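agent> call fold_tool(seq_1)
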Amino acid sequence: MPGLSNARDTAHAIDFLAYIVSRGCQAIAATYTILIKGIANEGFTEEVLELLNELYARGFMKKNSAKQLMVKIIYGSRL
């Protein structure tokens, strides 16, 4: 996942996540964080917001963690 995200190949990273989940593996918050950062690096900020909201709604991520990650994504690239 990190390699795919760093290579800006989030489409394959998403496919890989779907594959491991379909095989019974459970993704952890760090996995979603890597994926979210990769998506943000490709410029899909609106999609990142939607994904963060969905992860929070499903209980995969705490609200505070989602907010902190979004702040890092938005302001981290400007620092």
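agent> call fold_tool(seq_2)
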Amino acid sequence: MLVFVLRHADREPDPVDELSPVGQERAELLARMLQDSGVGFAFHSDTVRARRTLEPLKRKLGDALAVEEIAALDVQRTVDAVSSLPADAVAAVVGHGNTVGAVVEGLGGEPVEPMDLSAFDRLFVLFTDVAGAVTLLRLRYGAAT
């Protein structure tokens, strides 16, 4: 299994639950990066900013991408949903600064450092082999934050 785990793209300041123009650009970049990856499943929290982060990818892939919304703080449900996918699945999970690390660890990855509120460029990739061994790759994408 291959799982991309990330925080939603750059957002407008509170109380607005929306991507900023920079965040919209980052979401478009994410879609270009993942469109040929074989991703077939995506999960996002119940916030507008998380949903909007996946919208460009959904537009590119259409019905080839199954998208599910899960409550923002329901990390266990997210982990369970991803874990129940077929062994050859490719998935994306869009969460929040306070949930990404827990999702990565819940899927068998090593601990992830806490994210600063201004960090939007982190992209974690988990590879799970047929024996169940997990490898975590830590990447950054788009403009540095």
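agent> summarizing second result for user.
The longest strand covers residues 122-128. The helical segments are 21-34, 48-61, 75-83, 100-106.
agent> awaiting next instruction.
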